[in-house]
Amino acid sequence: MPIRIVDVREVTKPIASPIRNAYIDFSKMTTSLVAVVTDVVRDGRPVVGYGFNSNGRYGQGGLIRERFAPRILEADPASLMDAAGDNLDPDRVWATLMTNEKPGGHGERSVAVGTIDMAVWDAVAKIAGKPLFRLLAGRHGVQADPRVFVYAAGGYYYPGKDLGALKAEMRGYLDRGYTVVKMKIGGATITEDRERIEAVLAEIGSQAQLAVDANGRFDLETAIAYARMLRDYPLFWYEEAGDPLDYQLQAALAAFYPGPMATGENLFSHQDARNLIRYGGMRPDRDWLQFDCALSYGLCEYLRTLDVLKAHGWSPRRCIPHGGHQMSLNIAAGLGLGGNESYPDLFQPYGGFPDGVRVVDGHITMPELPGIGFEGKADLYREMKALAG
Ligand SMILES: O=C([O-])CC(=O)C(=O)O
Ligand SMILES: [Mg+2]
Fold first, then answer.
1. pLDDT tens across 208-252, in order?
2. Does the active-site annotation cover 182?
3. How far apart are CA 11 and CA 13, in angstroms?
4. CA of 340, nearest ligand number
5. pLDDT single digits (tens) 292-325
6. What residues does the Mandelate racemase/muconate lactonizing enzyme C-terminal domain cover (predicted)?
7. Residue 287's Cα: distance from chain center in Å?
8. How many angstroms separate the CA atoms of 5 and 247, rounded?
9. What's residue 389's pLDDT?
10. What is the largest CA-CA distance in the chain?
């Protein structure tokens, strides 16, 4: 008997906060929480996979309810099974989701699909009775490494935040075991941003490194002006200087910025990733790629992106995804990415780690929980159970 996906539920939840980066504020930010309910029973209860999209894009309830959930629910269950007939095949589910979707134009539909794809992989790993990172490592013939590098993202602009508050925030991350911290730039004048950077560097000293993120705000002239300022400091990276799709700007910037650059969180397909690699001047010996599967058609597509990188001589170690969710932690531990983002104080309960997981020397160790591991995080699992428990 094939496994049946008996329901796909979605609820749009607020993840609002009074912060802003150089481009947007998060006062109205939302996320879609999705449950994929199966008829497989484990420990007396149906297996349910959960997923959600990461911050930066909004909830996708309309697309999920109108297009994507019905396609799965209307599909012949046998068409969604793997070759062995003992589990769902995420690639077949993905192909069903994308029925009658034209190529190109990778806008918000990639977020809707990425969110459902996360829930499908959670269900598949639970049905297999394994942590997702172990399932992935097994399928790809690599050694899982449960120890994953994580960095603390924050340093946002918000009303009344002075240098003292910024320094205290960064100190808080060091106290929690992080060795790399990130702050926003480009939302103030270059003079003010230089002061903010110097204040943070003075605070963190040799205990940690600093990354900066312009969120795609700069035109070429401003991106270069910042590059000239930033290269005075030993930064961990200079992130998303210009528009995410302006590969020529990114390529030109490399001539002015010898240190590591990072980008990719707003590229939503393997084709866009390939264009970045082809035309964006990114350097495989030092730069970082931040594609986030939750925003970009999910893990099925992320695997194609990793293939593109391999074909162009890039190691998966150069990937540190955006988004701070446990899905990317599993991919990092299972497929050897360079690490994962984390927002210690933001976007809760969706981000972060299972309860009891601590950051030690800039790394966490994955617990051995079936699926993605959401059940290990009480505040998150409470929301999930309320949707489909
Ligand atoms: O502020 C945001 O949109 C999030 C972001 O860029 C990041 O985490 O790198
Ligand atoms: Mg960013």
1. 999 999 999 999 999 999 999 999 999 999 999 999 999 999 999
2. no
3. 6
4. 1
5. 999 999 999 999 999 999 999 999 999 999 999 9
6. 163-260
7. 17
8. 41
9. 76
10. 66
pTM of the model: 0.98
Q: Is 56 in the pocket of ligand 1 (CB under 6 A)?
A: yes
Please choose from 19, 210, 215 the residue to mutate so as to test ligand 1's pocket, defined by most ligand atoms within 8 A of CB. Answer: 215
* Residue 98 three-state SS: coil
CA–centroid distance, 247 to ligand 2, in Å, is 16
* H/E stretch holding 354: none
The average confidence (pLDDT) of the chain is 97
What's the CA-to-centroid distance between 157 and ligand 1, angstroms? 12
| pLDDT for residue 107 | 86
Respond yes or no: is residue 363 known to be catalytic.
Answer: no
- Any ligand 1 atom below 6 A from CB of 295: no
DSSP string, 268-321: -SHHHHHHHHHHS---TTT-EE---TTTTTHHHHHHHHHHHHHHTT--GGGB--
- Residue pair 259/235 in contact (Cβ under 8 Å)? The answer is yes
pLDDT (0 to 100) of residue 185: 98
Q: How many CA atoms lie within 13 A of 68 on its CB side?
A: 28
Residue positions counted in the chain: 389
Q: What type of residue sits at position 227?
A: A
Ligand 1 centroid to Cα of residue 14, in Å, is 17
